[in-house]
Design goal:
Structural class: alpha/beta
Strand content: 15-25%
Largest sheet: 7 strands, mixed
CATH topology of one domain: Rossmann fold
CATH architecture of one domain: 3-Layer(aba) Sandwich
Order of helices and strands: HEHEHEEHEEHHEEHHHEE
Distance between the termini: 32 Å
Number of helices: 9
CATH class of one domain: Alpha Beta
Oligomer: single chain
Number of strands: 10
Helix content: 40-55%
Bound molecules: S-adenosylmethionine
Strand order of the largest sheet: 3-2-1-4-5-10-7
Shape: globular
CATH superfamily of one domain: Vaccinia Virus protein VP39
Length: 271
């Protein structure tokens, strides 16, 4: 299944980037799930689940009496996710190929979740409305997404500034919003969720983590940067080299995108 709107490389390379992303975001996502609560026996839906890292977390927390469905339109990532679910002995999880904006289900879920998906969609409000229809009365929707304006470095790094400009332009040209983070609470309220709450996480590092992820994300958007004529091959290669050199220096600081976490409940007793 093709996704021409998604600016980041999919498939095996895309899955490996998501593995690193999950190492960076794992602690704050786990803290979020603990704060909101995932009781044993919960039924959970993870839309745009990618390689399934959060779906695995939900499956462990919901336990054997709970169940998780992950939906994504990248078949390669889903194949890897199914294999890894088996390796983790998680039998309460299924992965379905589909476009979440059109995906249908007969069941209502206790918890619906989306991380770093809405930023890529031309109609994020439409998807949050779809998510509300998948949430049972009393159930919760949890969203995590980025504000790309949050990037910073010390000292100044022109390669980083070029990367942020290219990424921003690539996402915007495909109808997405790279700075969607602060809109999440409003999107939940507009879709009819109540008791909306929000937290902010900001990954920054001296070594590894978000520093490496930034370099890998630049490599993974190279195809669209060239396709959109945002840079020549030479400028792109130089920028990748400069960003790696900057990131590998343990005396430099890189801060990534601000990550907004928002959640709300479906309190409609007729749902
Ligand atoms: C940045 S990744 C995040 C993956 C995962 N949520 C995580 O945090 O590790 C975004 C994922 O959304 C998927 N995606 C984008 N648009 C989609 C759509 N309309 N329907 C289903 N999946 C979609 C992509 O294939 C990709 O795997």
């Amino acid at each position: 299944m093709q996704n021409r709107r998604y600016v980041i490389r999919g498939g095996i390379e895309g899955r490996e980037r998501l593995r690193l992303l999950s190492e960076v975001m794992g602690p704050s996502t786990r803290a979020l799930l603990t704060e909101v609560g995932v009781p044993a026996g919960s039924t959970c839906l993870d839309v745009g689940c990618g390689g399934g890292d959060v779906a695995f977390e939900l499956a462990r927390t919901a336990g054997p009496t709970g169940r998780v469905v992950g939906v994504d339109l990248d078949e390669t990532k889903l194949d890897i996710a199914r294999r890894e679910a088996g390796q983790h002995d998680l039998s309460n999880i299924t992965f379905e190929l589909g476009d979440v904006t059109r995906w249908k289900s007969d069941e209502l879920f206790d918890l619906v979740y989306a991380r770093f998906l809405l930023t890529h969609l031309p109609d994020p409000g439409g998807l949050v409305a779809v998510l509300r229809r998948h949430t049972r009365s009393g159930g919760v929707a949890i969203l995590e997404d980025i504000d790309f304006r949050g990037h910073f470095t010390d000292p100044a790094c022109p390669a980083m500034q070029r990367y942020v400009a290219w990424y921003t332009s690539s996402v915007q040209r495909r109808g997405g919003d790279p700075n969607i983070g602060p809109r999440l609470p409003g999107l939940l309220r507009e879709a009819g969720f109540d008791d909306v709450q929000m937290k902010l996480v900001h990954p920054a590092a001296l070594i590894g983590g978000i520093k490496l992820l930034t370099c890998i994300t630049l490599e993974n958007i190279a195809d669209v940067v060239l396709q959109d004529d945002l840079a020549t091959e030479e400028e792109l290669r130089q920028t990748i080299d400069e960003l790696y050199t900057f990131a590998r220096d343990p005396h430099t600081v890189i801060g990534g995108p601000r990550v907004f976490q928002a959640w709300g409940r479906n309190t409609d007793i007729s749902a």
